[in-house]
Design brief:
The complex is a heterodimer of chains A (about 450) and B (about 500). Chain A is about 25% helix and about 35% strand. With about 450 residues, chain A is α+β, with helices and mostly antiparallel strands. Chain A folds into 2 domains: about 5-220, PmbA/TldD superfamily (PmbA/TldD fold), CATH 3.30.2290.10; about 225-455, no CATH class. The N and C termini of chain A lie far apart (about 60 Å). Chain B folds into 2 domains: about 1-245, 2-Layer Sandwich (PmbA/TldD fold); about 255-485, no CATH class. Chain B contains 10 helices and 24 strands. Classes of the chains: A alpha+beta (about 450), B alpha+beta (about 500).
């Protein structure tokens, strides 16, 4: 259990000097990874890791504000923690004093209890985990004669425990398990090659649905065979749920209160305005147990809460951590995110869900009639700018012809701006999928995008 | 891979440091006697090879954002990864506990895959320690934090001074000192001390058409001395100018156009178009469009491509790779003909050859795999301005962003972060950011001009969840046609 971690965190916090603020983040994890290839185990990794992140806050000598310093170490050894504490203290001397720099304080919101721990991750024998990867590889190779290679079939799982304590009264623990099966299929016909990735996620091995991973990988690879570039045009683009999850992750960047107060969000100053089609309701809800990133507490130890960011197309709020909230003159929304013990908190969306519509993917394709169905995108980090909103990504997928999926298309891009895309949402699917990452996804249709090909 | 463009700064990418004044310690990170016992234990149940990769990395970083120096960060990561290779199977375990007990426990966990029984007791004897000194003159810990922060303040002032429309500046500096030790059952015992320093600036400019961003960076496998040659003000102004120029940018064209890539714009074209596809782990699994094509013409005869971990001080430089193998200058494509792939220990062994010095890993918590180092196109003979002048219409890309490739199909994208229209052989209006998309071998065949103005840029390459620093280089070149993903 995480009690010993919380004890350790409190023991470090107890070393704070008078007038010094301190926050201690302690984490411990275990992970397993099995990669199968050609009927054998290609690699088997098992590892335990742990670490600590310490933030120290002091009032500046001249009283202009607070200075914060941070240090981390990949160990829970007492001498290593002592060294991190000393580093954090030294680092604090150099920060620009800022009256808005502060630690989170308990705000009376009660944490929702979530069951995110599956004992099966620890209790399942390694042989069974290996068998899952081997069987996935075998079944994928056998699923279709056109599958000529399975470049990887991976089983992985993890157990993570985190404790957080501070001089301001924060005291929280959270723990989570995940299990993951993923497969990369390569399909070929003649000289041509196409690829498809499939996966399934769960809290433990028993929550995995291996045939979903296999079916997805094989379908995605084989249906792309024969793909060609097409003429450039403007058309309605229907995005696959996985792509929608990725895109929402980018929109999330612009909904961060930190981006807003620092003048880096195209949503800045638009609270109350229509920023999306009326059908768009976007909720950030880490208290939903089904979300991959669900958690009772945020990265500063405040209770997670459900935040409605866009309601019926209108921008309602941004997400804040403690410091960005103080800069904006508001309160934290329980939205501090941090990259484990080596990261400092910042404001971000944690578990986004676009309110699902009623239609299935088939019904949406039928409604759209003609357009382009995007099964996967590339270059999101190089072609989507969450500050300007400029959007241009590599895409592969299938033409939508006569209301159904038609011939495969590759080596094209789809482009617009995020602002225009949100306003041009014409259909939101009911086929919500809980995916690894910061957002869930469902089929989504966006009108009038530029498709670039020949 | 997301590149970190560097502009025209930090030249002198070939040459040697002959002025190291930092003492080389001859102590190993872990006692060789302990290592021998750990490796012997790792092979107790059989196995063809056992390896200990130990690491002690200290990192430091600071960010200036919104006019304020935010909290400084210091980090320490210390531990060992142990692998045991038996047949086609690799067992791997890592631990932060570098005591003999901790290492032995990890060795037993890694050996669990090789318990089929082997040759019986086999004692490992290590050779003498091959110790490489610090790859930098001024290591991070020898520099006052205040001096590093002064760089951030100077960058902030320079960026804000570039124009009133610059509304936000984020400047970051970071450094790391990574001591690694590699010991294996073949008797290898080698140690390296890698020092890296980076500085980057992102600016936001605000105009009538909304906000735009500009970025520039400097990153080298050296110490604080990099700031003797490069001025942070220049980096800051370049970043600011990139944001400012795009305020007046029009949407990029949509469809196939001729592209001129500026020298040093971020040789990421080759990193994506063929670099990843020439990594032997993809090749041996037939998951690359370049599999089985050695000896074939895979690119324009103007293309000679090299991957070279020996380029001293460059972002992808090291004295030994993460398997203890010295780096090499590996010619991958010569005059358009595919000559070889890049290899790590595991994939080379499968083919009965030697590693090419491309076995790298993000940290002791990761297994090594085939990775690029500094990948560059050799310079050509043409004048860069002439190449533009001889392009009636097209797009001039002054700076590239990141990119991504599917090695099995060869389809890849790379993004522009500063681009202009070419009209009647002249560079004219700025364009908004967009991705370009193409197929590796097709695009390489369409390179019809290469200039003399070679330059390198540093980047971070991501593969299978691991990030490593790499360099990319190229002179100005033209591709006769690539699909540009604009909206116009």
């Amino acid at each position: 259990m995480s009690d010993d971690l919380l004890e350790l965190a409190h023991a470090v916090v107890a070393q704070a000097r008078p007038g010094e603020g301190m926050e201690v983040y302690v984490a411990r994890g275990t992970e397993t990874e099995v990669r199968a290839y050609e009927g054998a185990v290609e690699s088997l990794t098992s590892a335990d890791s742990s670490g600590v992140g310490v933030r120290v806050l002091v009032e500046s000598p001249a009283g202009e504000g607070t200075q914060a310093g941070f240090a981390w170490a990949g160990s829970l050894d007492p001498t290593v923690i002592a060294a991190a504490l000393a580093d954090a203290r030294d680092n604090a001397r150099f920060a620009t004093p800022d009256p808005n720099v502060a630690l989170a304080e308990p705000d009376g919101v009660t944490a929702v209890e979530l069951d995110l721990w599956d004992e099966g991750v620890a209790s399942t024998p390694m042989e069974e985990k290996i068998a899952l990867a081997l069987e996935l590889e075998r079944a994928t190779r056998a699923a279709d004669t056109r599958v000529r290679q399975v470049s990887s079939a991976d089983y992985s799982d993890s157990r993570t425990e985190v404790a957080l304590a501070s001089t301001t009264g924060i005291s929280s623990t959270r723990r989570r398990t995940t299990a993951f099966l993923a497969v990369d299929a390569i399909a070929g016909e003649g000289d041509e090659t196409q690829t498809g990735t499939g996966f399934t996620v769960g809290r433990g091995p028993s929550g995995l649905v291996p045939h979903e991973a296999m079916d997805d990988a094989v379908r995605r690879a084989t249906r792309m065979l024969g793909a060609r570039k097409v003429q450039s045009s403007h058309c309605t683009v229907v995005f696959d749920p996985r792509v929608v999850s990725t895109l929402l992750g980018v929109v999330a960047t612009a909904l961060s209160g930190e981006a807003v107060v620092k003048g880096r969000s195209f949503f800045a100053g638009r609270i109350g305005e229509s920023v999306a089609a009326a059908a768009v309701t976007l909720v950030d809800d880490p208290t939903d147990e089904r979300a991959f990133t669900a958690s009772s507490y945020d990265g500063e130890g405040l209770a997670s809460r459900r935040n409605v960011l866009i309601a019926d197309g209108r921008l309602r709020m941004f997400v804040y951590d403690t410091v960005s909230a103080r800069r904006a003159g508001t309160a934290s929304t329980g939205s501090a995110v941090r990259g484990g013990f080596a990261g400092t908190p910042s404001a971000g969306c944690r578990a986004l869900v676009l309110a699902p519509g009623a239609k299935s993917q088939e019904e949406i394709l039928a409604t759209v009639g003609d357009g382009f169905y995007v099964q996967s995108v590339t270059g999101v980090h190089s072609g989507v700018n969450p500050v300007s909103g400029d959007f241009s990504v590599g895409a592969e997928g299938l033409l939508i012809e006569g209301g159904a999926l038609g011939r495969p298309v590759r080596e094209v891009t789809v482009a617009s701006t995020l602002q225009r895309m949100l306003q041009s949402v014409v259909e939101i699917g009911g086929d919500l999928r809980w995916l690894p990452g910061v957002a869930a996804g469902q089929t989504l249709a966006v009108a009038d995008m530029a498709l670039s090909g020949d | 891979m997301g590149t970190v463009p560097r502009g025209s700064l930090g030249r002198g990418w070939v040459g040697r440091h002959d002025d190291y004044d930092t003492a080389v310690t001859d102590t190993a990170l872990i006692d060789p006697d302990v290592l021998e016992r750990v490796l012997t234990t790792a092979l107790a149940g059989g196995g063809a090879m056992a390896e200990v990769f130990a690491e002690d990395t200290v990192t430091g970083g600071a960010t200036l954002d919104d006019g304020r120096i935010e909290e400084l960060s210091s980090g320490r990561s210390r531990g060992a990864g142990i692998r045991v290779v038996e047949g086609e199977t690799t067992g791997f375990a890592h631990t932060a506990d570098l005591s003999e007990a901790g290492l032995l426990a990890a060795a037993r966990a890694a050996a669990a895959v090789a318990r089929e029984g082997g040759p019986g007791v086999r004692t490992v004897a290590l050779g003498p320690l091959d110790n490489h000194g610090p790859g930098g003159r001024t290591p991070p810990e020898s520099v006052d934090k205040a001096r590093k922060l002064e760089l951030l303040t100077r960058a902030d002032e320079a960026a804000r001074g570039a124009g009133g429309s610059v509304t936000q500046v984020m400047a970051g500096c970071g450094d790391s000192r990574r001591r690694v030790l590699i010991a294996n059952s073949e008797g290898l015992l080698v140690q390296d001390d890698q020092i890296r320093t980076r500085f980057n600036v992102t600016c936001v400019a605000n105009g009538d058409t909304g906000m735009q961003t500009g970025y520039d960076a400097l990153a080298r496998t050296e110490g604080f001395e990099i700031f003797e040659r490069s001025r942070v003000e220049d980096i800051a102004r370049l970043a600011a100018e990139r944001a400012l120029v795009k305020l007046a940018a029009r949407p990029a064209p949509s469809g196939e156009v001729p592209i001129v890539l500026a020298g040093g714009s971020g040789g990421i074209l080759f990193h994506e178009a063929c670099g990843h596809g020439l990594e032997a782990d993809h090749i041996v699994k037939d998951a690359s469009v370049y599999t089985g094509r050695v000896g074939e013409l895979v690119a324009s005869p103007l293309v000679t491509l090299v991957d070279d971990g020996t380029v001293l001080g460059e972002w992808g430089y090291f004295a030994v790779d993460d398997e203890g193998c010295p780096p090499a200058r590996n010619v991958l494509i010569e005059n358009g003909v595919l000559t070889d792939y890049m290899w790590d220990w595991l994939r080379a062994r499968k083919e009965g050859r030697k590693s090419s010095g491309n076995g790298r890993r993000q940290s002791y918590q990761h297994l090594p795999m085939v990775r690029m180092t500094n990948t560059y196109l050799l310079a050509g003979t043409e004048d860069p301005d002439e190449i533009v002048a001889q392009t009636p219409s097209g797009v001039y890309v002054k700076k590239l962003g990141g990119g991504q490739v599917n090695t099995a199909t060869g389809d890849f994208v790379f993004g522009t972060s500063e681009a202009y229209l070419i009209e009647n052989g002249r560079i004219t209006e700025p364009l908004r950011d967009a991705n370009l998309i193409g197929n590796g071998p097709e695009v390489l065949r369409r390179i019809d001009a290469v200039a003399t103005d070679f330059d390198m840029t540093p980047g971070t390459c991501g593969k299978d969840g691991q990030s490593v620093p790499v360099g990319c280089g190229q002179a100005t070149l033209r591709i006769s046609g690539v699909t540009l993903g604009g909206t116009a």
